[in-house]
Amino acid sequence: MVAAKVIKPITLEEFIEFALQPENSEREFEFIYGRIVEKMPGRTTNSFIAVQIDRKSFAFCEAHNLPSYVSIGDGAYIVGGHTVAPDFAYKTTPMIGDYPDPEPPLWAVEVISPTDKANDIRDKRKIYIEAGILLWEIYPLRREVDIYVPGQLVRTVDMDGVLDGGDVLPGFELPVKDLFPES
User: Fold this and answer.
1) What is the model's pLDDT at position 183?
2) pLDDT by residue (tens digit) across 95-107?
3) pLDDT band at 32, cuts 50/70/90?
4) Is 57 helix (H, G, I), strand (E, B) or coil?
5) Measured distance CA(143)–CA(46) in Å, rounded
6) What share of the chain is helix, strand, coil (3-state, %, to 5)?
7) Please, how many CA atoms are within 13 Å of residue 22, restricted to the half-sphere of its CB?
8) Alpha helices in 23-106 (DSSP H)
């Protein structure tokens, strides 16, 4: 019988040291429950979705004279002792040059790819929910969005529905069909 190898979780500080090593400068990592998770490059259609949300939310904030600090894909944030890099993140305070940004976003979007692992999706969802962050999980193949609003049950919005900014960005609306390039 072969004994299973036990992997000791690392600390946030050890993760940051690892991620900032020169040989990792072109790679993107997240730190989830004591383990390093490398993010793989996404599909261009997924990137398009994040850009659409950025464009629409920025225009809304500009029209309503609201602060808008957004990252797409590369922005890493410390959230509850973890480091996550959502496909889109919104906050009302300026970005800083530290890695990872110590102030979590108010709203995060994860565009789910077929190659994303179910455990990783669930773990990140739990992190966002526990931190009270508005979360949109976008499923391009199903053309649906699962909405996780702090303190509420999950809600699924399909192609005929309209997404909203909730308490984070009151009055902001985005038709789901606007997220998909071939719609």
Assistant:
1) 52
2) 888 899 999 999 9
3) very high
4) helix
5) 12
6) 25, 30, 45
7) 0
8) 44-63
Return the residue matching tokens 């040059």.
Answer: 97
Model confidence at 46, in pLDDT bands (50, 70, 90)? confident
Residue 182 confidence (pLDDT) above 80: no
Is residue 32 within 8 A of residue 82, CB to CB? The reply is: yes
Q: Tokens representing 149?
A: 């609003």
Q: Estimate to the nearest angstrom the gap between the alpha carbon of 123 and the chain centroid.
A: 12
Q: Who's near 102: CB < 8 A, 6+ residues apart?
A: 77, 78, 96
What residue type is assigned to position 172 of the chain?
A: F
Q: Smallest Cα–Cα separation from 131: which of 92, 79, 81, 70?
A: 79
Q: Which amino acid is at 177?
A: K
Predicted pLDDT of residue 1: 55
Structure tokens at 61: 């904030």
Residues 101, 95: contact at Cβ < 8 Å?
A: yes
Written as six digits, the tokens of 73 are 């894909």
Tell me what pLDDT residue 165 has: 96
Return d(Cα 7, Cα 95) in angstroms, integer.
34
pLDDT at 145 over 80: yes
Residue 10 in tokens: 């690392």
- Mean pLDDT on 11-27: 91
38 Cα distance to chain centroid: 14
